[in-house]
Amino acid sequence: MSEEEIENITEDLGQFDEQIKVPRRLNSSYAGYPVEMGENTVKTRLRIGREMLFDDEGLAYNGFVYMAANYAAQLAINEPYAVTIGSRVSFLAPAKMGDIVDFDAKAYFNESKKREVRVLGKINGVRIFDASFQLVVLEDHIFRTQKKEVDQQTAARQAREAEEAGK
């Protein structure tokens, strides 16, 4: 990736600083970056680089395309604690070294905790990827949510054991 391309990506990311609520730890070189954001919609872009190649002929590993589509789904929902719980995916054509994959994502069921996001990926206007992601919006980080549930289950089990020991 040239210095100019990196600078343009940095500028693109900066223009959405105030809008993006999802965590930003992902490397945009692998997950793509937003180019347009709206309510429940996002357009993102992924450039297929050398480090994404599956073989010596320039075929991109489809896991990178999936990851970028999943990130687009997260951005379409744009909540800090959304977790992907499922997906239905079709890889319609391969990506290769140097390709630019443009993703369009649209989220549905905005008022629900469980959301569906349709993501289409295109290279030069040709559809190469089509998916539906299911995400759940949580009130807290999934690790803290799971810990609370485990703590509640442990307390309930201990109470039952104490009650049984008292009989």
- Give the helix tally: 4
Radius of gyration: 20 Å
Q: For the largest sheet, list the strands in their spatial order.
A: 1-2-4-5-6-3
Task: Please tally the β strands and state the result.
Answer: 6
Portion of residues in beta strands equals: 25-35%
Give the terminus-to-terminus CA distance: 71 Å
Explained architecture:
The protein is built from 4 helices and 6 strands; from the N terminus they run ααββαββββα. It has helices at 3-14, 28-31, 62-77, 142-166, and strands spanning 33-38, 41-47, 82-91, 100-108, 114-123, 126-137. It has a 6-stranded antiparallel sheet. The longest helix has 25 residues, at 142-166. The radius of gyration is 20 Å and the shape is elongated. The mean pLDDT is 87.
Summarize, please.
The protein has 167 residues and is α+β, with helices and mostly antiparallel strands. The protein is built from 4 helices and 6 strands.
Feature tags:
alpha+beta; 167 residues; six-stranded antiparallel sheet
How would you summarize the topology of this molecule?
Blueprint: H1 3-14, H2 28-31, E1 33-38, E2 41-47, H3 62-77, E3 82-91, E4 100-108, E5 114-123, E6 126-137, H4 142-166
Antiparallel strand pairs: 1-2, 2-4, 3-6, 4-5, 5-6
